[in-house]
Design brief:
globular, about 350 residues
């Protein structure tokens, strides 16, 4: 219990620090003026486009789940993503990353550990995909340098974050592959650590661990691997398109290609385990808009607040509507997770 409070205090402190730098020197009259000038038809379009990433992520997920079950319903995958993101927007600690696979496992009668493993693979591919797009952006620098507002400082930061992203994704990939290729040794080691615990509990943990490792196997079929890689690019290119349209609604005209580094930074910010992704997302979004495109900080603050609010409201409405339709609550999903570990 004490560790939980310490972790919560650290998360809240980190959130407060990011928000301090985000709101520093904001002129709210200017923010309101910028927001009042929004192109309403295009803004409405962004609301309709907000669930697009849930669709593309659902299409991509199928190619990881096919090893466990070939006929997983599209709606179950869409609903799992919607519920997971709704929980992430509502609670600290990225709890939705666990709720998402457990929800799908319950709906489709899939092993919970296997579903959890596929989410780890998703995050690895997310990081590598955006790092690749950032790399393409940096290599193509001579083609767009006259249209990109960022200076030497911008490029140095991008190189740094790109290296950090590739290093973290590579470490996670190597760890995942090690679990798979040294599966028996891993299970023996965990079995040794579980000796002091009751036999029933130990067997269940070992079974979940084995399922989890099997869920990491994204490379068994070349066809599925290629299709999953393709849809990873579809996911992120669609997310970039969404931000491009959103900025267009506020009169910010930038080339689609130039949004690669901005979306990369928002991904970094969103990975901070703060409540509702508040703080980290906001700071990095404002940083990218002002540093890369020379946007007025007040406009950057207004756009960031609104784009985050649209995503939160739309996603939560969809996610909680799905839970209401299923007669479920977040607490029931947590209880299901506890049952799986028993």
């Amino acid at each position: 219990m004490r560790k939980s409070w310490i972790r919560f205090a650290i998360i809240m402190l980190l959130t407060a620090v990011f928000l301090f730098f985000f709101f520093r020197s904001v002129d709210w009259k200017e923010v309101y003026r910028y927001l009042s000038e929004v192109n309403l038809p295009i803004f409405i379009l962004t609301i309709l486009l907000a669930p697009l990433h849930l669709v593309t992520r659902a299409l991509r997920w199928r190619y990881l789940l096919v090893q466990e079950k070939k006929d997983v319903k599209f709606w179950s995958m869409f609903a799992g993503n919607a519920v997971g993101f709704a929980v992430n927007f509502s609670l600290p600690g990225r709890v939705g990353e666990v709720i998402k696979p457990l929800y799908l496992a319950q709906k489709e009668k899939i092993r919970a550990g296997f579903a959890l493993g596929t989410v780890v693979v998703e995050r690895i591919f997310d990081m590598f995909t955006m790092c690749f797009l950032l790399g393409v952006f940096l290599l193509a620098r001579p083609l767009y340098s006259s249209k990109f507002k960022g200076g030497a400082e911008s490029y140095s930061r991008l190189y740094l974050w790109g290296i950090v992203g590739v290093a973290f994704a590579s470490a996670l990939l190597l760890f995942s592959l090690s679990l798979y290729f040294f599966k028996e040794k891993t299970l023996r080691f965990i079995s040794f650590l579980l000796k002091p615990f009751p036999q029933k509990f130990s067997r269940r943990v070992l079974a979940l661990t084995e399922e989890f490792i099997e869920g990491l196997t994204f490379f068994q079929s070349k066809k599925n691997l290629l299709l999953y890689t393709f849809f990873s690019f579809v996911v992120w290119l669609a997310i970039i398109f969404y931000y491009w349209v959103f900025l267009f609604a506020f009169g910010v005209r930038v080339l689609y290609f130039l949004l690669f580094p901005y979306v990369f930074l928002t991904m970094v910010g969103a990975s901070v385990p703060s409540p509702g992704m508040v703080g980290g997302f906001h700071y990095f979004s404002k940083l990218g808009l002002t540093l890369f495109f020379g946007i007025d900080p007040n406009l950057a603050v207004g756009v960031t607040i609104l784009v985050h609010a649209v995503q939160v409201v739309v996603t939560c409405c969809i996610g909680y509507a799905i839970l209401w339709k299923d007669g479920m609550t977040i607490f029931q999903l947590k209880k299901f997770g506890e049952v799986q570990a028993q």
